[in-house]
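Is this the right way to post structure tokens for a design question? Let me know if I should format differently. Anyway, here goes:
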């Protein structure tokens, strides 16, 4: 998604953008977010919830990646529509997706 946005909107100032996602970004995704300079990340489902459902997740939270990135000041805000997002992942688990 980030690559497509960058290709389509090359001169964009990423520090003016926010990202909304159903699940908390994994460490790799949060690192990509840090490198782009996206200002704020909003997510619904947390990594611990995904782990409880049996989804394989690296046990490093997005907030920790953001905190340990000294050249950015990214805000990470979780719990946005959390119940609705959790229900999507519970259904995916039941469906075997």
């Amino acid at each position: 998604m980030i690559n497509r946005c960058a290709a389509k909107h090359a001169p964009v100032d990423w520090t003016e953008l926010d990202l909304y996602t159903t699940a908390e970004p994994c460490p790799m995704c949060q690192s990509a977010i840090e490198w782009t300079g996206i200002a704020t990340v909003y997510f619904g489902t947390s990594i611990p919830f995904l782990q409880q459902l049996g989804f394989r997740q690296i046990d490093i939270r997005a907030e920790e990646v953001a905190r340990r990135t000294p050249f950015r000041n990214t805000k990470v805000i979780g719990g946005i529509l959390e119940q609705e997002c959790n229900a999507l992942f519970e259904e995916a688990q039941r469906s075997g997706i």
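Format looks fine. Someone answered above. Worth noting: Residues 82-95 form the longest helix (14 residues). The CA atoms of residues 43 and 78 lie 5 Å apart.
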